[in-house]
Amino acid sequence: MADLARRGFAPDARVHWLGEEGRLKFLADPFGVWRDGRLHLFAEAYDYRDRHGVIVRIELDANFAPISRTVVLREPWHLSYPQVFEAEGETWMLPEAYRSGALTLYRAAAFPDIWEPVARLALDTPAIDATPFRHDGLWWLAYSPTGSQRWKQGRLHLAFAERLTGPWRTHPGNPVRDDLASSRPGGTAWIENGMPCLPVQDCTRTYGGGVRKLAILRLDPERFEAEASAPLGLPPGVGSYSKGFHTLSACGPLTFFDVKRIDRTLWPRRGSS
């Protein structure tokens, strides 16, 4: 993924596409885990008819075709952005759930399908697209705040902790970045030249309109400096899905991503007949 974030997609890049979800539905925010030679994709599954996202797991075969699909996390509130990662001998999931008023860390009680909440991470705001990473002996979270659409799409906050479950301290510089082009997290972090890098969303034209690499130049509990790259080009073969490039996440030798198109349809208001 680091090479892709630096150079973009090659014209002859090997891209495997999942099938479309069908009318009024989409999959987004892909994250993956290899376990015992099996590839598990976790993603948000959204249905416009109930405006509610759940987290699904899709097992893929050696040719990246779906073998099975299961809803692994459903809550009364909307869920998305299921950051799944391994640390401290456990497998964790940190899905976005800002409409619940909190950010909840889940642990796999029986991977891959059974997840239990283990901690509510107390921050300065219910976090949007929270992205964990390690740096200089600390856990860090990069996330966007709730508030106006401009804040959700164009501000970056940070928090840090000695343990993944907390307690978490928010960075005194929050928001450490205020830029619609390069603030909202969009995938898994990686280390480059000893410093963290983040994929971030370019929301200048539309929400999730593109992805940039945000290279962190200085990071400690008092300071933050970063530099954003130019937006990455779209992968080959996007077809009608050319209106956005939203997530970039690493899974061993693979990189997951999503792209978007915009469809418009007449839809009655809620409560109307």
Report on this structure.
The protein is mainly beta and about 270 residues long. It has a single domain (about 1-5, about 25-260), classed as Glycosyl hydrolase domain, family 43 (Tachylectin-2, Chain A), CATH 2.115.10. Helix content is about 5%, strand content about 50%. It is built from two helices and 19 strands. The protein has helices at about 1-5, 150-155; strands at about 25-35, 40-45, 50-60, 65-75, 80-85, 90-95, 105-110, 115-120, 130-135, 140-145, 155-160, 170, 175-180, 190, 195-200, 210-220, 225-230, 245-250, 255-260. The strands form five sheets. Strands 9, 10, 11, 12 and 13 form a five-stranded antiparallel β-sheet that branches. A four-stranded antiparallel β-sheet has the order 1-2-3-4, with no helix packed on it. It is globular. About 35% of the residues are buried.
Alpha-carbon distance between the two ends: 48 Å
Please mark out the parts with pLDDT under 50 across 5 or more consecutive residues, or reply none.
none
Mean pLDDT: 95
| Residue fraction in strands | over 45%
The CATH architecture comes to: 5 Propeller
CATH superfamily: Glycosyl hydrolase domain, family 43
Shape: globular
CATH third-tier fold name: Tachylectin-2, Chain A
Helix/strand/pairing category: mainly beta
The percent range for helix content is under 10%
Total of helices: 2
Rg, Å, rounded: 18 Å
Q: What is the highest CATH level, the class?
A: Mainly Beta
